[in-house]
Prior knowledge:
- The complex is a heterodimer of chains A (92) and B (162).
- Chain A is built from two helices and six strands, in the order E-E-H-E-H-E-E-E.
- Chain A is α+β, with helices and mostly antiparallel strands and 92 residues long.
- Chain A is 29% helix and 29% strand.
- Chain A has helices spanning 23-37, 58-69, and strands spanning 2-5, 8-12, 47-52, 70-72, 78-80, 84-89.
- A two-stranded antiparallel ribbon of chain A has the order 1-2.
- The mean pLDDT of chain A is 78.
- In chain A, a hairpin with a 5-residue loop joins strand 4 (70-72) and strand 5.
- Chain B is of the alpha/beta class.
- In chain B, the strands form two sheets. A five-stranded mixed β-sheet of chain B has the order 4-3-2-5-6, with helices on one face.
- In chain B, a hairpin with a 3-residue loop joins strand 2 (67-71) and strand 3.
- The model of chain B has no long low-confidence stretch (mean pLDDT 82).
- The A-B interface holds A 52-59, 61-63, 65-66, 69-70, 87, 89 and B 55-59, 129-136, 138-139, 142, 155, 157.
Amino acid sequence: MLLSGDEGEGPTVSLVDDGSYDYAKFREKLVEIKKKVIGKGFVDENRAVLTASADIEYQVIVKIMDNLQTYTDEENKILPLFPEINFSKILQ
Amino acid sequence: MAFQPSKSKKNLGTESGSLNMNSMMDMMTIILLFLLKSFSTEGALVTPSEELRLPVSEQGQKPKKELTVSIAKNVLLVNDQLIMDVQDIQKDQMLIPPLASRLSQYAAQEQELEIDVGKEFTHEVIIEGDEKIPFELLFKVMYTCSKTEFYKMRLLTVKKGS
């Protein structure tokens, strides 16, 4: 899993030992990014662009979307993470 | 002076009574009807099958009944009507022509309804995809939907624990 932005490529989240994606770490990184951009007046602070290789299973996409919806901050408030998801395709 | 017992009250004690059930039956019928009606058909009704197993998610809203595009393992359906086989989808083309033409028909119908009876065209479509379908296929279907005026897409999933 690769997170990228305008400034270039973001952190990469490697697979866990059994070969599946590391959703917990993925979430952690997203919350980190969210905290950097929140409240700075970006109009698209809730937006994420989701793209995947052609052969990625639908279940994985749904799981990623799940993890993009909300997060809980230190005061136990549930805040939107990146719920506005745009789909995009990698040009191969 | 002892009075003679009245003749009309002579048989009062021996009168046998029976329970009248009519009013209770009426009431029960009303309750039964009410119960049957309250089993509402809220949300989208999906019949799970081996060919179309929805992915599991943790979050989401309750779905409404809208036009559905189903992507099963081998076939593509719109409102449960067969459109085409998944193998027949062209690899190098983003648009899926049979799906597009069917969706355009629905869009035209909806627009006519909007003009004739004022039923709002919501532009909404529900996409039911099998959990194993590749992203490429999902993306092609979404692209086709957006090209035929159904640009508000919802992905149908099964909520965890329900």
